[in-house]
Structure formats: structure tokens, C-alpha cells
Amino acid sequence: MSSSSNNNRVLSGMRPTGALHLGHYHGVLKNWLQLQHEYQCYFFVADWHALTTHYDDLSNLENSVWDMVIDWLAVGVNPGSATVFIQSQVPEHAELHLLLSMITPLSWLERVPSYKDQQEKLKERDLANYGFLGYPVLQSADILAYKAGHVPVGEDQVAHVELTREIARRFNYIYGREVDFAEKAESAMKKMGKKNAKLYKELRKKFQEKGDDEALSTAQALLNSQQNITAGDKERLFGFLEGSSRIILPEPEALLTKASKMPGLDGQKMSKSYNNTIALRDSPDDISKKLRTMPTDPARVRKTDPGTPEKCPVWKLHQVYSDDKTLEWVQQSCTSASIGCLDCKTPIIDAVLAELAPICERAKEYEEDRSLVRTIINEGNEKAREVAKETLAEVRQVMNLSYR
Ligand code: TRP
Ligand code: SF4
User: Fold this and answer.
1) Does domain 9-176+250-260+370-398 have CATH number 3.40.50.620?
2) Ligand 1 site-directed mutation target among 53, 72, 160, 253, most atoms within 8 Å of CB
3) Suppose 196 and one of 4, 87, 192, 273 were both cysteines; which one would form an S-S bond, judging by CB atoms 3.0 to 4.6 Å apart?
């Protein structure tokens, strides 16, 4: 792991898809709620990313953004601990995107799997655009502007974090080289004090000679705890640990989010495009109705026909919501035809309604107080911007674009 100083920082973005559903909740959001206690989190609405595929119809963009933010807040994303913001309100993302685009080989972008996949999948759209090709660079800028150590993403996004690492490495290699790097690193070492300098040297040797990863992370922790050296010196010492250039943009790690087990109403993955979702803010009536009418094992035409839970989408929902006793009851009563499907669905309807009631209530408070939502976002934008500005100042400086 090569990363300077911000291992504690987590960053993730979501495209504004409008009202979120249970799939988002069980897949992504519950994970965010956990992370916000353990890390310094930055969660943002990737509105520019939405433009890369849906540039031709933006009439609903703004509503989708606010709806998504309200859902985040309603499920418990806490603006007191996480920074919540909108990508396009932090123009530093665009500046870094531009600068990184200069050093990103075309071939790296063409081989990102999502490039071809999405073009195949979204055949009805013309995606042969510059912006679409460059979208992983924008994502890299999102991540690197905050020097995030960890990026929670689903399987489909891991390649983008990998690309971010490659771009960061290339950036550091090109702009982190200094003629007198080794001398500068030596003098930076001295500023840590004799004892720490000695320890640093020993750890570096252990890593470089023996590939001892533990020595590397110990040395990185040592550097992170240094109060008396400048940011520039820190970058040198991080870089000197592993090679011969400063680390200006640390390489992030993907934090793989387990695929959501949340099935949709038809047993496929829950997704808006399959039209099988329960939205977080669906009314209790709608939710009951959707669940009551969802398909079951087709073998159970009459109540007296036994069924097989494994062939029933309701069974998958039981696995998310029910305890062992209920699961046992379903198996028993379905295969022996001793209950009807509606009986079987009752515990799920109850569980989903109970889960969503507090979320709906909080969402309602935010819906009724839009200015509160705007204030939260404005503050988040500002906080995010402070951090991104610092990174960009450094980036400009190493690229000789400071003009001071
Ligand atoms: N590309 C991601 C998606 O489509 C969203 C995203 C944009 C993102 N920038 C990011 C995720 C930075 C993590 C980090 O889902
Ligand atoms: Fe599905 Fe339950 Fe009906 Fe069996 S009883 S088919 S598991 S809904």
C-alpha cells in the first residue's frame, strides 16, 4: 500500500438516479453508514458522471439530485460526521480531470471494461463521445482530489479504482521527480529527529531489501505521526520509502462492497431498469400491494398445491428479512401446502414496512424543509472544496502552474 497521510479518508460517489430503493439501501447505503463511524467520509453526488451518458435529457437532473440526497440523509448518512456534497459544485474536480487527462494514455481508457460494456448495453445512446471515454479520468480526479485512502465500490467499479492507481503512479513519476531527490529526502529525514530518522532508515531497508510489507506500513504510520515536517518533505519521505519520486497523489485502495443480496420483486437483482423495485419512499400501501402481488412459485396454482421455496422470489426476500425460525416455517408450510402464499408474505410485508417507516418519516422532514437540505449540501460543498483546493494547489505547484 503506498499512500501518504490520508489512509483514514474514504470517498465514494453515486450517480443521481433519483429516488433510491431497497437495493441501494442493502447494498451501498448500509455500508456507508458503517464507514462513516470508522473513517473520515466524503460522499458525493456524481452529477457530472450522469452527463457522460445522459447528456441529452437533463430535465430531471436537479430533482434526481435532491431526491437522492434526501434519501441519503433519511437512511442516516450523518452530515455531522460525513461530508456530503455535489460534484459539480466543487470545480476542482474538473481542473484535476483536465490535468490528469494530459498524462492518461488513450490505450488505458480504451481497455477499461465499462467503456465497451456500457456502449453495448446502452445501444440506444450515442456514447462515442470524448466525455464518455474520459469518464474514468473524471472518477480518478474525484478520488485523487481528496487523496482518499479507500474507495468503497461495487465489483463493476474496481477497474476504475485500478486505473486511478495507475494514473496516480504516473503523475507521481512524472511530476514527483527532483534532481536532488535523495539529498532532499536525507535532509527531510533529519528533521524528524535522530531516533525517528534511524527507525525510518531501518524500516526502509527492510522493505527495499526484503520486501517486508509490514515494515512499509510501520514506516508509513511513523511518517503520518510526524508533526514537525512539511507536507513536501512528507511526500519525499513517502516516495523515498518505495522508490525515487515524491508521492503527491497517493494510490487509493478499492474497498469492495459485497453485491447486494436484495432481490427485486421478480427474483432478479433489484434495479430500476427491471421495474422490480421497492423505493425507500414508496407509501406503505404501495409496498403492501407490490409485495402481495409479486409472483411466487408458479407450481402453486391453488393453495393446496405444494411449492418449492427455491423456485420462489419470496423465499429470497425471506433470506434477507427472516430469522431461522421463520425460514424453517416457510420451508415446512410451503412444501406441505399448509399455508397460502399471502400468509407466507405477511412477515416480509411487516418487516419491510417496519424497516422503512423511520426512513420515510425522516425523508418527510427533509422534504418539508428543503432549505435544511440545501444548507447541509452548501456546507458539504464548502468543506469538500477546502480539501480539494489544497490538493490542487500542490498539483499546480509541481506542474509549474502556480505563477507566484
Ligand atoms: N462511477 C461511479 C458509478 O457509476 C460513481 C462515481 C463517480 C464514483 N466518481 C466516483 C464512485 C468516485 C467512487 C469514487 O457508480
Ligand atoms: Fe413462495 Fe412462500 Fe408461496 Fe412458497 S408459500 S411459493 S415460498 S410465497
Assistant:
1) yes
2) 160
3) 192
- Tell me the per-residue pLDDT of 123-166, one tens digit each, with 9 for 90 and over: 888 888 999 999 999 999 999 999 999 999 999 899 999 999 99
Edge-first strand listing for the sheet containing 253-256: 82-86, 40-45, 9-14, 150-153, 253-256
Region 281-367: CATH code: 1.10.240.10
What pairing do the DSSP bridges indicate for beta strands 40-45 and 150-153? unpaired
Q: Is 83 in the pocket of ligand 1 (CB under 6 A)?
A: no
- The bound ligand whose nearest atom lies closest to the alpha carbon of 333 is 2
pLDDT in tens, 286-312: 999 999 999 999 999 999 999 999 999
Contact 399, 99 (CB under 8 A): yes
Distance 55 CA to ligand 1 centre (A): 17
Pocket test for ligand 2, best of 293, 297, 319 (most atoms within 8 A of CB): 297
As a whole number of angstroms, the distance between CA 283 and CA 272 comes to 17
Single out the residue of 367, 379, 388, 389 nearest to residue 85, CA to CA: 379
Task: Provide the H-helix boundaries in 191-261.
Answer: 194-210, 213-224, 231-242
Give how far the C-alpha of residue 114 lies from the chain's centroid of Cα atoms, to the nearest Å.
16
Phi, psi of 41 (to 5 degrees): -105, 140
Cα 170 to Cα 167: distance, rounded to the nearest angstrom: 5
Ligand nearest the Cα of residue 132 is: 1
Q: Where are the domains of the chain?
A: 9-176+250-260+370-398, 181-242, 281-367
- C-alpha dist (Å) from residue 336 to 71, 245, 298, 339: 41, 70, 15, 8
- Cell numbers describing residue 258: 459485497
Cell of 5: 497521510
pTM: predicted TM-score of the whole model, two decimal places:
0.90
Which protein residue has the closest C-alpha to ligand 1 atom 8? Answer: 13
Our separate counts of H helices and E strands in the chain read 19, 5
Residue pair 291/350 in contact (Cβ under 8 Å)? The answer is: no
Convert 13-43 to b/e letters by CB count within 10 Å (16 or more is b): bbbbbbbbbbbbbbbbbebbbebbeebbbbb
